[in-house]
Amino acid sequence: MESTFSSPAEAALQREVGAAGLLTPLSDLDRVYELQRVVGFVRDLGCQRVALQFPDQLLGDAGVVAARLEETSGSKMFILGDTAYGSCCVDVLGAEQAGAQALVHFGPACLSPPARLLPVAFVFGQRSVALELCAKAFEAQNLDPTAPVVLLSEPACAHALEALATLLRPRYLDLLVSSPALPLPVGSLNSEPEPLERFGRRFPLAPGRCLEEYGAFYVGGSEASSDPDPDLDPDLSRLLLGWAPEQPFFSCCPDTGRTRDESARAGRLRARRQYLVERARDAHVVGLLVGTLGVARHLEALAHLRNLTRAAGKRSYVLALGRPTPPKLANFPEVDVFVLLACPLGPLAPQPSGCFFRPVLSPCELEAACNPAWPSPRLAPHLTHYADLLPGSPFHVPLPPPESELWDTPDVSLITGELRPPPVWKSSNDPACSTLTPRPQLELVESSPAASFLCSRSWQGLQPQLGQTPVTGAVSGRRGIAIAYEDEGSS
User: Fold this and answer.
1) Which DSSP helix (H) or strand (E) runs through 419?
2) Which helix (H) or strand (E) holds 152?
3) Cα(398)–Cα(281) distance, rounded to whole angstroms?
4) pLDDT at residue 77 above 50?
């Protein structure tokens, strides 16, 4: 019966772990991983200890790449193969534990600013792009040569965008090429005006132009699947959610030139996010998942979310669990929704349908649910980075004062159909917002939802039962592991 629903438990104990095979041919390592540029980066800084961060899918090449870099640069290389959170974030904490003076990040990256200063070089890899096929696909989807279009790509195809634009510019007059928003070197001076930075990319817009005027042509992904809604790459999901809904958005496979209209998938993503906003409005207990410790301003964002839930009359609990998994979050059934405070790509990572016991939201969705001054879904942009919600950002919307009429606006749940009561606005300095208020008879005036949930459970954990348990001598326990104790023998 066990093998019908899952693999036998003994398979995990008997499995032999072998070294991952080389993923990239030896002749292509220098080009794919840009080893010459990495060596120049290490030599310019004069670093003796350098950390190399690889995602799980590239660990097969890590040993050979590290050996070549050590041989060429003369510096000691350390491979960071296990990150506490997402592999797209720079693991500054792991590099500091290894005593590294610089870090080289390989693979897709969210390009979030790290919380601590450390020289970082990004190597996205160079995926081959069929320029002629992609150019023909672009011309087939963009018949108007005067329509404004932006060329986008996955990080591994960014090196080919300028070459693709060279093939298209003789005909298309208003063509914009995006580039990864790599962090500028410390102390660098640039006299030119800084381009617009959004979605981890830079857009060199002309004066008076805005990004909402442009359509999009995305180069990346795999062959168009017959599945109507396969799991999307987090980077593509970020673009589809944040792009102007009235503008066309096409994706193109760099290998075959097959294109796909992404407007339908973008609509489903927006509908899913609106559903999560409604779930957050109905929630009474919110779990704030700490999904990063290395991205800048994460503590400020955590304080902002706690104040946001308190103003909306909700309880919040901060949970530091590393990477969120269904077994971890299932330990907190009293929590109605979880909010993942991570990099822009963290909350958008694809998860199997119905994987989590409770929905996992992004900070933007919690902001839309708890801030009555937030614009309507048709007017508000979908922000993927929590830094855009904080003071100082052009998208920041401060909370209305407690006496504002916005807090008393009637609201009906689109899920349950019931009228939501207005929240009781309590500031953090209000002495009446304490969770427990003792009385002389030790009665609780106000109890938290978590405490009420615990009281309703039939089993509430191990009880001390002082004086009720007979005293016995210590005896030897069972030896072995739970699947096969020594006194059970072999089955």
Assistant:
1) strand 419-420
2) strand 149-153
3) 18
4) yes
